[in-house]
Each structure stands twice: as C-alpha cells, then as structure tokens.
Amino acid sequence: MSKAGGLRSWGIMRLAMGLGLRRRPTCSFLLQSSTSISSSSSPLAVGSNGKKKDKVIVIAGPTGAGKSRLALELAKKINGEIISADSVQVYRGLDVGSSKPSAADRREVPHHLLDLLLPSEEYSAGKFFEDARKATEEVITRGKVPLVAGGTGLYLRWYIYGKPDVPMATSELSSEVCSELIKLQEEGKWDEAVELVVAAGDPKARFLPTNNWYRLRRSLEVIRASGSPPSAFALPYDSFKGQPEFEERKRSNDLVYDFLCLFLTSPRIDLYRSIDLRCEEMLMETDGLLSEASWLLDNGLLPNMNSATRAIGYRQAMEFLLNCRNRGGRSTAECFFSFLYEFQKSSRNFAKRQLTWFRHELIYHWLDASRPLESVVDFAFSAYREKEEGKVVVVPKNLEMRVVNPRQENHELKCYRAKNRIFRDEADCQHVLDWILRSQRRAAA
What is a GO molecular function of this protein (predicted)? Predict the structure, then answer.
C-alpha cells in the first residue's frame, strides 16, 4: 500500500475548522439480468443540444469485491482515468485502512479525488458531486474515458442523477451556526444539540448517526437559510426510481452522461471470507492500519469524532489502541482477537448494507467477481464499445451474479463464522503486541 507523503505543518484549528495535525511518521441480489451483449439497438444517448453524450463508466461494489482492480485493468484498455468514489480515500494518511491505490497503480493510471483532506476535515456527498463532476469534465477534455469507482452509495447516486438543490450557506451564516453548536460539541452534548436542531425545524435530526456534527450543522444551516429542513428538497433520483426498470430511452435522455454502470460482487460467503482475510492483512504489518489509527490519536482525534474516525477499521482500531494506552501500552492476545473480531464483523455488516443499497439501483449490471478477472475486464471493454454503437448491454450468463440455491446460502450465512488464516493463535500476533507495547506506552506517557 502506498504511504502518505509527509504532511506539512498545520496550524491548530479546533472543531468545525478541524484539529491541526502533526506530521505523521512514514509508515505509510441481485439483479437477475438476462444475458450476453445484445446486438439489438437502443437509441444513442444525446443531450438537449442534439449532440452525442459523453460516456462515463461507473464501477461499484461492496468492500473487498475487487472493484479497484477491475477499474485499473479496464482503464488501461480504454485509455481511461479513475475517479475515486470512496469516502475515506479522500483523506491523507489513511492508506491501508481505505485500501487506497498504490503509488505504482497511480503511475500506471491517473487517479482523482485521493488525498484531498486532512483527517480532521469533513467531506460530504454534495462536495463529492462537485469534485467528481469537475474531474469528469477534465478527463473528457483530455480525450480520456472517466471511470468512477467506489462503494459509497450516496456519492454515486448523486453523481449519476444529480444532487438536491439545497441552498448553500453564506460564510456569515456558517459562522453563526457554528457558534450555536460549538460549545455543545466541545462538551460532548450530542443529544442536547440534536434537540436544538429539532426545535429549529428538523425532526429527522434525531436519526442522524451519533456525533455526526457536520450533518447536524449542515441541517441547521439549511433551516436558517431556507426555513425548511434538508428533507424538504426533492432528490433528482426520486424522479427516476418510479420508472419500470429505469427505461433505457428515458434514462439516457435525462442524465448528463451516457453511463455504463457495473456492480461487482461475489456470492456472500466468498465475499465474507475475502473481507475477513483483508482485515487480517491490514493488521499483519505494524506500519498498517494500527499505525494509521495511532497517528490519528496522536493528533488529538478520537474514535467516532468525525467522518474519518467513524470509518470502519479506523474506529475499531482507535478504540482498541485507546484501551491499550489506558493500560500503559499493554494488551493481550485475547484483547487483540476481540478487536479483530469486531473489525471483521463491522466490515461484513458494511458489505451487507452496500448490497442492500445497490440492489435498488436498477441502472447497474451485476457481475460475478468470482469469475476470472480477465473475463470480467473483457466483458466491460466489449460493453463499452457496444454501448458506443447504441446497442443494449446485457450480461452473459457465465458472468451473471445470481444465487443458485438461496435456501442453502441463507443457511450458510446464519452459520458463518470467521476463520482466521493469518492470526490463528497468540504466537501469530506477538509481533503486533510487541509493537503496541513500544508505541502506545510512549503515547500514554
């Protein structure tokens, strides 16, 4: 994994403006589609000016499915550039836990929307929409093909269909709202802050994730600017989802780009095993996820404090290391395995939520990640070429993602338990425990 480059010295700006960070040491279901690409034609996507729309490829999938590798190999074949749609890869220094593309991958194919922010800063779907659309136009201007790859569902939904027309707050209004909430945030009075926003006019604030201060502030900004809560503004996606199967002609006419959307996943048991192994691999080296989590703690961030520290893997690792620091840097194999279990479980649950989200996104063609990568890349390449000619894209049967025996799969999922392949006993994690003792004892001092 690539390691974050050196961070410049940053001034300390607390809470809404972000905490200053010291330099980090270098360590750096299913859509049952029919099948095969059809030779039947569909109308070419054209804009309101009558010109043919630019093609954009979107590659989505649950964590651990292999979408980044598919995007990389496809980009090399079609002269493309990759735009990340990952809510954690935007942060500098969070490399291992976000599976950020390596330096070698980035040399092979240009990547965008990586390493934009400090972990103390917030990022949103609205900001992603603006950044990703801008990057898309820049890629097209260079004569390249944009490939948007990631698993953050809301980011991709807004990118494809558009974002709601929620008013932006002026700098004066933002400062005013921040002043209203900052003392409550400093004192950790989340429930009291929520009730303040509810009283202002947004009852849905009660359903925000705990300590998501950015969204709470944004809700209050919208109310102050418009007199209405964010939920009062129509979502462009809603005008599409009522269309049977997202009827091709209507979709092509109404969207800004001519999209080829692919969703890569595996049978759930295979996916879960892959996720469990990936979690182990992130902890195998002492300059991996635990080192990145330690760096976050060293710079004054706490678990579940903001977008970066709520991210799966980082939150669990920070909680684990905080507990170690409270014990003078000491830990045990039992504590380590308990942390690993929670990390794996949270990652699998996240993948399940991603599958549920994208199951309702009918614009995607679902592909079986357990098939040879070369076959999937060849199909995606052919689908892109066929789409350029106005032909309907249909997934071949051998690449279809479908459950052969749903009852058997459900039984296997109920009985599923992680079987570690790297950390099987105390001896396998001793080097990690030794590193924790050395590094967290110093931090606790």
Answer: tRNA dimethylallyltransferase activity
